[in-house]
Design brief:
Helix content: over 70%
Largest sheet: none
Number of helices: 1
Oligomer: single chain
Number of domains: 1
Radius of gyration: 56 Å
Order of helices and strands: H
Strand content: under 5%
Number of strands: 0
Distance between the termini: 193 Å
Length: 132
C-alpha cells in the first residue's frame, strides 16, 4: 500500500483553518478597536469630569471670596457704627457733665445769694433790735 499525499489546498480542514484564522484576526481586531474606543471615551469622560471639578472649585472659590468681602464690609460697618455710637455717648456724657457742673455752679450762686439775703436780714434785725 502506497500512501498518496494530496496537496494541502485540497483538504477541507485547511480551508476551515483559514476561515477560523481569518475570523480570529477580525474578532481580535474588532475587540482591540472597541477597547481603544472605550479607553479614549473614558479618557474624555475623565477630562470632562476634571474640568467640571475645576469649574466647581473656581465657583466655590469665587463664592467664598464674595462672602469674605461681604463679611469685611459688614465688620467695617459695625466698627463705623460702634465708633459713631461711642462719639454719641461721649457727646451725651459731656453734656451731662456740663449740666452737673452748671447745676453745681448754680447751687453755689444760689447758696451765696441765700447767705447774702440772710446777712441782710440779720443786719436789718440788728438795726431794729438794740444791742442788749
Amino acid at each position: 500500500m502506497q500512501l498518496t499525499i494530496y496537496p494541502i489546498w485540497l483538504n477541507v480542514f485547511f480551508y476551515l483553518f483559514i476561515v477560523v484564522l481569518a475570523l480570529g484576526i477580525i474578532v481580535t481586531t474588532l475587540l482591540i478597536r472597541r477597547t481603544n474606543n472605550k479607553t479614549s471615551d473614558m479618557k474624555i469622560m475623565q477630562h470632562e469630569h476634571i474640568t467640571k471639578i475645576e469649574n466647581l472649585r473656581g465657583e466655590q472659590s469665587e463664592t467664598l471670596e464674595k462672602i469674605r468681602v461681604e463679611m469685611l464690609k459688614r465688620e467695617e460697618e459695625r466698627t463705623r457704627q460702634w465708633i459713631e455710637s461711642e462719639k454719641e455717648t461721649l457727646h451725651v456724657l459731656n453734656g451731662v457733665s456740663m449740666l452737673l457742673d452748671l447745676n453745681e455752679k448754680i447751687g453755689k450762686v444760689e447758696s451765696e445769694k441765700i447767705l447774702n439775703k440772710l446777712d441782710e436780714i440779720r443786719i436789718k434785725i440788728e438795726k431794729i433790735t438794740p444791742n442788749t
